[in-house]
Automatic annotation (TrEMBL):
<feature type="region of interest" description="Disordered">
    <location>
        <begin position="200"/>
        <end position="219"/>
    </location>
</feature>
<dbReference type="InterPro" id="IPR027417">
    <property type="entry name" value="P-loop_NTPase"/>
</dbReference>
<dbReference type="InterPro" id="IPR056884">
    <property type="entry name" value="NPHP3-like_N"/>
</dbReference>
<feature type="domain" description="Nephrocystin 3-like N-terminal">
    <location>
        <begin position="567"/>
        <end position="689"/>
    </location>
</feature>
<dbReference type="Pfam" id="PF24883">
    <property type="entry name" value="NPHP3_N"/>
</dbReference>
<protein>
    <recommendedName>
        <fullName>Nephrocystin 3-like N-terminal domain-containing protein</fullName>
    </recommendedName>
</protein>
<dbReference type="InterPro" id="IPR032675">
    <property type="entry name" value="LRR_dom_sf"/>
</dbReference>
<keyword id="KW-0677">Repeat</keyword>
C-alpha cells in the first residue's frame, strides 16, 4: 500500500483480515500540517480496509487531537469509505480514527495482547465500545480478543445491529455476561474462545456441582432467535454456562471443543457438561452440522448422572439417543474420546436410519488399552448402504478381520464417495487382511458403495507383519482412485464377539421431503425457459411459420375419426443446421402461452453435464408434470418415499413409477391435450458406470461392457414409446433429432408404426430459402441501423451468394450474422468481405463455429478417420495426377459406383456414413443412379479438410487405388 506513504513514518507490509481482505497499515503520522491536510483527507477517503498497528512513537499531542476533532470538517469522517477497521493498539491515533469511522464501518476487530492490557487500555476499550453504541449505524461484525470484561460485553449487547460476534477471553465467562448477550436478537454467528491464563490466586476455581447437583437445561423461551452458528472452545465451566444460559432456536452448526482446564481434574465432569450442552442444542430443529470433540476425557460404563427426575445422562448414551430428532442434520462428527464402548457404537449405528439428510459422519475414537478394543462387525456397512442413501463421507471404526458374504439380491446405488475405515481389530499373530481375502473385501466394499472414489486405511508399518499385510491390501486398493495409509499397528487377543449381537434394522429409509429430493435431481437447464437457455436460438418472426403451424396443429387438434387416430409421437427431423432446436423452442413458447405445454427437455452436447446424459431425464419430466398437474404431487411424493433408490433404476422403471403410476391415480380432465417436447436426443452422451480411466471387461473374456450413446438414446426412445402407449398418459410427444441411424431404425420399425404420427422432415417442401432470405434481410437491417450504413448494403447479389452458400441450412446464415455482429476484426463491410472470400492469410476464420459444429458430428461416426477419408474422395480433393479413373466418372458419380470402389466388404458404406445422414444425403441401397449429395456447401468447403495432413490424403489415395 503506497497511498499513505507521504504522511507516515512507518509503512508496514499489507495485512489481511480473517476474511482474506487486504488492510492498509497505519502508524503514527508525521508531518501532517495545514499544507498537506487536504491531501491526507483525499488519500484517506479511498481506504476501505485499515489496520492500525502497535507503535512505540510518542502519542499525538492532546491539543492537536482537540484541534482535529473540533475542526470545521469534524462532521465528515476521515475515512468515509472505510468498511472494516482492525485495531492492534488502542493509542490516541486508534481511538481518534475509530471514533471518526464508526458511522460507516461494518466490521470492527480489536486485537490486544496481554502485555497491552493496562488500565489505560481497559478504559480505552470500554470507551470505544460505548462510542460504538452511540455512533455506529452499520456495524455488523465485532471481534474482540483477550480483553472483554463484563462492562465491555454489557455495552456490546446494546449494539442491536450485530449479526456476528467473536470473543476471545482470558478469564472464565460469567453468567451475567451471557445474559447480556441474549439481547443481540439479530446475532447469527457467535464464537467464544477461552485462552488459558495464569491462575488467579484470588480465584478459588470453578467447582463443578456433584453429579446429583447438575441441572438439566430448562425449557426457557428462545434467546438469540436468529443464531445459526455457535462455536465454543473453552473449558467445562464455560461450556456448561453456554449450554444452560443460551437457548437458540434455529442453529445450523455447533462446534464444541472441550478443553481440559486447571480448575477440575475430573474429566468425566467435563464430558458430562459437554453432553449436557450438546443435548441442549439439539432442541434446534434446523441444526445441520454438529461437531463435538472431547480432549483428555474418558467414559466409564458405571458413570450415571441424574439431571432431572426424568432425564438421565449416562455418558454419551442419552446424547446419542436424542440425535435421532435431528432430521435435517447433514454433518455429524463425534471425535476425541479415548474409546467408546461397543454398546455406545451400536447405539450410534441404530439411529443412523433416522438421520436421513446425513451426508458426512465421523464417529472415531482411540483405545486407551488393547483390552478395550471391541468393534462392530464389518456388516454394519450393509445397513448404512441400505438406510443412508445421501451419505457421501464416512469415517468409522469397524472389525475388518471377518468379511461377511455379500447380501443376496442386493443392488446398491449408494452415493458414498469417501470412506475412512479403521481396521483395528486383529487376532494375535495374524495380519489385518489374511492372504487371499483382499479380493473378497474389495468385492464387498465395492458392491455396497459402487461410487466410492477413495478408501482411506489408517495404518502405519511398525513391524514386518504389518508390511506384509499391506502388500496384500495394496492389491485391493488398486480398485480405487485414492489410498492413504497412516495410523498405528495393533496386536491383541480377539474378544468373544458374535455378529448376532448386532441388531439389523430392516426398515425402509425415510425421505424427509420427496418433492425437494426430486427437485435436487432434475436438469434445470433442460427446461425450455431456463436461465441456461436464455440465449438459445428461436425462430425469427415470420420465419418457419409453416413448420411451426403444422407441429402446433398436430398437438392441439384431435382426430375427427377415433378409429383413424394416429400415434401420440411425432418425429421432427432434418439435416444438421436446419433449425430444429430453434423451431422446438418457438413451439414451446407458443404452447406455454396457450396452456398446453406439459413437459420439455432440451438435450445439448455443449451444455451442463445433466443435459448431456440420461440420468436426470425422467426426474425432470416428473418434476414438470407435478407443476403442470398438481394433482399428481401426492402420488408422486409417495412413490419417492416408498422407493428412495428409484432414481438409480433404469428409465423404464422410473417412467412407470414417477410418471405413469401417479397419472393412473388421478383423474385428468382436459379438452385440449398437453404436449411433451424433447429436443436433441441425438446429442445425449453415454452414461458410464465405472472409472473412466479403466475400460471394464465383463466376466466373459474380452467382452467390453462400456456403454455407447446409441444404447442410452434408444433407452430414452423406448421409455417415451411405452408412455405414449399407456392409456393413462394424456400427452402427445414431439421428438426432434438428426436423422442418425438409431432414430431411422426406431421410427421406421414396422412393428412400431402404430405408435407414431407421420414424420415431419425439414426439407425443401417448407421453402427454407424464403425464410433464410427474410432472416438475412432483417438482421442486416439491424446492423445497418446500428452502424448508420446505407440502405444499399449489402447488395441483392451478395444476399443471393449467401443464400446459395446456405444450401437451405439456417446454421450458415446464423453463423454469418454472428460473425459480423460479434467480431472485432473490422467493420461490417470488411467482415462481410472476409465471409465471402475467407482469406486464410489473415489468420481469421469466420466459420470456426461452423467447423466445430461439423467436427462434432464427424466425431459421432463409429470411425471418424475413415469417414473423413471417404469425404475427401467424395469431395474430389485428391493428390495431383492420381486416381484418374475415379475422376473420369464425372463430378457426381452414383453412390452405387462409389461404394463399389471404396468398400472392402459389403456394408462398409452404411458403417462409415450411417451416422452422417444429417450432413450427407445417402441414397437407398437399391438406388443405382443417385449420387451422394452434401446438404451443406459450407461443409464441402469447410476448413476441416485443411486440418488433415498430406499423410492422411496419401492414405486415402492408396485406399482408393487398391
Amino acid at each position: 500500500m503506497t497511498s499513505l506513504k507521504p504522511f507516515f513514518g512507518l509503512i508496514l507490509p499489507s495485512h489481511k483480515d480473517r476474511h482474506g481482505r487486504l488492510l492498509e497499515p497505519l502508524t503514527y503520522p508525521h508531518g501532517i500540517s495545514s499544507e498537506n491536510w487536504e491531501r491526507f483527507k483525499l488519500y484517506s477517503s479511498r481506504t476501505k480496509h485499515l489496520v492500525i498497528t502497535l507503535d512505540e512513537s510518542p502519542s499525538i499531542h492532546p491539543p492537536w487531537l482537540l484541534y482535529l476533532s473540533k475542526s470545521s470538517e469534524h462532521h465528515a469522517p476521515l475515512f468515509p469509505a472505510l468498511q472494516s477497521l482492525h485495531l492492534m493498539s488502542l493509542n490516541d491515533l486508534a481511538i481518534f480514527t475509530a471514533y471518526s469511522a464508526l458511522p460507516t464501518i461494518h466490521s470492527l476487530r480489536v486485537e490486544l495482547g496481554v502485555v497491552t492490557m493496562g488500565q489505560h487500555t481497559k478504559d480505552a476499550c470500554l470507551a470505544l465500545v460505548i462510542s460504538a453504541r452511540e455512533r455506529a449505524r452499520n456495524l455488523k461484525d465485532v471481534e474482540i480478543t483477550h480483553f472483554p470484561n463484563c462492562e465491555v460485553i454489557s455495552s456490546l449487547s446494546t449494539l442491536q445491529s450485530l449479526t456476528s460476534l467473536s470473543l476471545t477471553i482470558s478469564n472464565a465467562m460469567t453468567a451475567d455476561s451471557l445474559k447480556c448477550l441474549e439481547q443481540l436478537t439479530l446475532l447469527e454467528y457467535l464464537n467464544i474462545r477461552q485462552k488459558h491464563a495464569p491462575h488467579d490466586p484470588q480465584d478459588n476455581g470453578f467447582q463443578f456441582p456433584s453429579p446429583s447437583g447438575l441441572a438439566a437445561p430448562t425449557s426457557q423461551a428462545s434467546s438469540l432467535p436468529n443464531l445459526r452458528i455457535l462455536v465454543v472452545e473453552a473449558p467445562g465451566k464455560t461450556q456448561f454456562l453456554v449450554a444452560t444460559h443460551l437457548s437458540p432456536r434455529f442453529l445450523e452448526t455447533v462446534r464444541m471443543n472441550v478443553i481440559n482446564d486447571d480448575f477440575d481434574d475430573d474429566c468425566r465432569h467435563i464430558a458430562l457438561v459437554s453432553f449436557s450442552a450438546a443435548a441442549h442444542m439439539k432442541r434446534s430443529k434446523q441444526l445441520n452440522s454438529l461437531i463435538i470433540r472431547w480432549d483428555n476425557a474418558s467414559f466409564k460404563p458405571e458413570t450415571s448422572v441424574t439431571l432431572q427426575s426424568n432425564v438421565e445422562y449416562t455418558d454419551p448414551k442419552h446424547f446419542l439417543t436424542n440425535l435421532s430428532s435431528l432430521r435435517n442434520i447433514t454433518q455429524l462428527k463425534v471425535l476425541g474420546v479415548r474409546w467408546f464402548p461397543l454398546d455406545i457404537v451400536l447405539r450410534m449405528l441404530k439411529i443412523l436410519p433416522s438421520l436421513q439428510s446425513l451426508k458426512e459422519l465421523q464417529f472415531l475414537s482411540q483405545p486407551a488399552t488393547m483390552d478395550e478394543l471391541i468393534l462392530p462387525p464389518l456388516s454394519a456397512l450393509e445397513d448404512i448402504a441400505r438406510h443412508n442413501p445421501l451419505l457421501e463421507v464416512l469415517s468409522i471404526n469397524l472389525d475388518t478381520s471377518i468379511i461377511p458374504p455379500f447380501p443376496n439380491h442386493f443392488i446398491s446405488t449408494h452415493n458414498l464417495r469417501v470412506m475412512c475405515l479403521f481396521p483395528f481389530k486383529l487376532r494375535r499373530g495374524t495380519t489385518p487382511f489374511p492372504k487371499g481375502e483382499t479380493s473378497r473385501l474389495a468385492h464387498y466394499i465395492d458392491g455396497l458403495f459402487p461410487k466410492l472414489e477413495s478408501v482411506t486405511k489408517h495404518w502405519s508399518e511398525t513391524s514386518k507383519k504389518a508390511y506384509d499385510a499391506w502388500v496384500e491390501v495394496g492389491k485391493m486398493l488398486v480398485c480405487y482412485d485414492v489410498a492413504i495409509i497412516n495410523a498405528t499397528w495393533c496386536e491383541f487377543d480377539a474378544r468373544d464377539f458374535s455378529v448376532k449381537e448386532f441388531n439389523v434394522i430392516n426398515e425402509a429409509p425415510h425421505v424427509a421431503d420427496p418433492l425437494n429430493d426430486l427437485a435436487s435431481r432434475i436438469a434445470a437447464g433442460a427446461l425450455h425457459d431456463s436461465d441456461e437457455r436464455c440465449d438459445a436460438a428461436k425462430c425469427h418472426p415470420e420465419t418457419r411459420v409453416a413448420v411451426q403451424g403444422e407441429i402446433y396443429s398436430w398437438i392441439v387438434h384431435s382426430d375427427p375419426d377415433p378409429a383413424q387416430k394416429m400415434g401420440k409421437i411425432k418425429w421432427v427431423t432434418g439435416p444438421a443446421g436446419t433449425g430444429k432446436s430453434a423451431i422446438m423452442g418457438s413451439v414451446a413458447d407458443t404452447c406455454k402461452q396457450n396452456g398446453v405445454l406439459a413437459v420439455t427437455f432440451f438435450f445439448a452436447s455443449y451444455a451442463s453435464p445433466d443435459r448431456r446424459r440420461k440420468t436426470a431425464f425422467i426426474p425432470t419430466l416428473a418434476y414438470q408434470l407435478a407443476e403442470h398437474l398438481p394433482a399428481v404431487k401426492d402420488p408422486l411424493a409417495q412413490a419417492i418415499r416408498d422407493r428412495p433408490l428409484l432414481f438409480k433404476k433404469n428409465l423404464r422403471v422410473q417412467m412407470e413409477a414417477l410418471i405413469l403410476t401417479p397419472l393412473r391415480q388421478v383423474a385428468i380432465e382436459s379438452k385440449v391435450p398437453g404436449v411433451v417436447l424433447i429436443d436433441g436426443v441425438d446429442e445425449c452422451e453415454a452414461e458410464q458406470y465405472f472409472d473412466s480411466h479403466v475400460t471394464p471387461v465383463s466376466p466373459r473374456a474380452g467382452e467390453s461392457i462400456e456403454r455407447t450413446k446409441d444404447r442410452d438414446q434408444l433407452e430414452i426412445l423406448e421409455a417415451l414409446r411405452e408412455a405414449a402407449l399407456d392409456p393413462a398418459f394424456p400427452f402427445r410427444i414431439v421428438i426432434a433429432s438428426r436423422p442418425e441411424r438409431i432414430f431411422r431404425e426406431f421410427f421406421n420399425n414396422e412393428s412400431h408404426k402404430s405408435s407414431f404420427a407421420p414424420t415431419l422432415t425439414l426439407d425443401e417442401k417448407y421453402n427454407p430459402n424464403a425464410d433464410i432470405i427474410l432472416f438475412l434481410q432483417a438482421k442486416f437491417g439491424e446492423i445497418r441501423r446500428r452502424y448508420n450504413l446505407g440502405l444499399s448494403w449489402p447488395s441483392p447479389e451478395i444476399l443471393t451468394v449467401l443464400l446459395d452458400q446456405a444450401s437451405g441450412q439456417f446454421i450458415y446464415a446464423a453463423t454469418v450474422i454472428r460473425y459480423i455482429t460479434t467480431s472485432r476484426h473490422g467493420n461490417p463491410h470488411t467482415l462481410l468481405d472476409q465471409v465471402l472470400k475467407v482469406k486464410p492469410s489473415l489468420g481469421i476464420n469466420p466459420f470456426s463455429h461452423l467447423d466445430g459444429f461439423y467436427t462434432h458430428i464427424l466425431q459421432s461416426a463409429p470411425n471418424p478417420i475413415l469417414a473423413v477419408k471417404w469425404l475427401w474422395i467424395l469431395k474430389g480433393d485428391l493428390p495431383p495426377g492420381g486416381l484418374n479413373f475415379f475422376m473420369s466418372m464425372g463430378s457426381n458419380p452414383a453412390a452405387f459406383l462409389v461404394n463399389l470402389l471404396l468398400q472392402t466388404d459389403d456394408g462398409d458404406a452404411e458403417y462409415v456414413l450411417g451416422d452422417l445422414h444429417s450432413l450427407i444425403d445417402v441414397p437407398p441401397s437399391d438406388d443405382f443412379d443417385t449420387p451422394y449429395r452434401p446438404y451443406h456447401k459450407s461443409f464441402v468447403q469447410s476448413s476441416f479438410g485443411a486440418g488433415f495432413s498430406i499423410s492422411v490424403r496419401t492414405k486415402v489415395y492408396r485406399h482408393a487405388v487398391r
